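$ fold --in a.seq
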Amino acid sequence: MTATVTRPVPQTAPTRLRTLGWLTVLAGAVGAAQAVAVLAWPDQVSDRHYSYPFDSTGFVVAQVSFAVQHLGLLAGLCGITLVAWRRSSRPTRTGLVLCLVGMVALTVCEIVAITAADAIVGSARADAVDNAYGVPMTVLGIGLVLAGAGLMRHPVLSGLGRWVLLALGLYLFLVLFPAVFGPMVAGRIAIGIWMLMFVGLGVSLLRADRDGVTT
């Protein structure tokens, strides 16, 4: 009789998913804190300046911190893509790709916005930076709704996780988009809430790792 050798199952994928989940939780929490910090920051310039409430140096630091924080949100989108890709329909996979492209482009926009650090609100440079945000936000929103609708019908995450991408996309179009192009206070509050929703995505990925979801 030939002895059967049982090989241990590699744990690389769950470990990777756990890491992405924690990065998403951290990035969402940091993003919410950033929104509060911007609202609480003492005015260093008048609200006629695009960098308000920061001076130009503070604005550069803030934008770099936003870009770094977006990488953590990108980690969460990478995590859900790893979990869902092989078990998703073509439209769902298309949505996941749009999510990744949109978040990368949004991250780039945070760096590009530094070029308006000394600009005045309403100037050509300030308006160009504002308009630049529109395309990646739209692409990201479409991706979230498309992928979220597919994953709601064929969930790969348990509990509220099956709704989180769709909720993120609908919130972006119905609340975040109008708010960020309105008064700063409304925009920052809306961003803070959206960031907390990303915390929910991170928690869902951690639960998927705990439940042994394969990627």
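$ fold --in b.seq
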Amino acid sequence: MNEILKAIEERRSVRRYKNETPSEELIDQVIEAGLNAASGRNLQGAIILAVTNKEIRDRLSADNAAVMGASSDPFYGAPAVLVVLADRSVRTSVYDGSLVAGNIMLAAHSLGLGCCWIHRAKEVFDMPVWREYLRSLGIEGEYEGVANMILGYPDGSYPDPKPRLPGRSVKVK
């Protein structure tokens, strides 16, 4: 079977991680795959904020938990987070960011890493403290959080696939 189709079929969201950060080389490969995603009119308005600093990762997790009204770690112990942000001035920004997130998931799986899309990036990066944080990194403009892509080595085996629901495609000839 084609390797891309195999990765699509086998990829699963991972929610248990080892306490070991993937190498910078592996993270860079995942980022590169994300940045090669298609985008409307090829404007490439989505960017990736790679968080491997434990203090920043923990602050990001805590604010994400606060948005959802929880006290547990919504990042499931993953040591790295690739935050997908999209330029609000681009009409297709959220769609483009979603394509970046999809590529990240597939690339992570193909490299033996676990990954899971965690929501609430929009709410967190609408907070003034995170907008200021982006500015402190030299990220100018109005960016909307699209996805928190947690990343790391799975602690255990990949979850079993759920059956695909029937009747989700219609052929028109």
